[in-house]
Amino acid sequence: MTKKKAETKEHKELPKEPVKATFSKERVLTESSDNARELYNQSRYGNLLDDGRVQLSLIEALYLVDKKKLVVYDSRNKEIKPEFLLKKSQKSEPNFWVRYCVYRDIRNRGYIIKTALKFGADFRIYDRGVKPGEDHARWVVFPVHEGSTLTWYEFAAKNRVAHSTKKRLLLGIVDAENDVTFYETRWLRP
Length: 190
Known about the structure:
Number of domains: 2
Number of strands: 10
Shape: globular
CATH architecture of the largest domain: 3-Layer(aba) Sandwich
CATH superfamily of the largest domain: tRNA intron endonuclease, N-terminal domain
Distance between the termini: 64 Å
Oligomer: single chain
Structural class: alpha+beta
Radius of gyration: 19 Å
Low-confidence stretches: 2-14
Strand order of the largest sheet: 3-4-2-1-5
């Protein structure tokens, strides 16, 4: 192997520095850097702002912190630990942990998952290799804790939302060990 090829290969294998971000009012804003934009361009984390920064949701930020791809700082430039970020997130969203477990499971499986508030669901999921804007999401997801109850009316409403948006419905059931089991439902004509 020539020296130039060895240097190129070695350069690609160097670990990337985590992206720096600031916690601000239930959102996390990254620095304006190539690594931050790459988070957006490669895996569609957050929303790309005009100034080159990426705005992340609390769920996305916690996931990236857990993966060592993001370091979050407060307004005094002091690093925020993952436990504190989780605590702040749970304070603003009571169902945060259940939603995070589903988000983490889907991301770990290699799918892009985004919010789906305009569809009346928690999340939408794209097929592997598909980015938002290239094609439509295939599923809408409703995270549910195994101990919670869901009436048939609520279940029918969730199914109707999925059907009306031409997506498949996934229920992400989070158990006591924080494992997630997914159930896909859809309308069938007898």
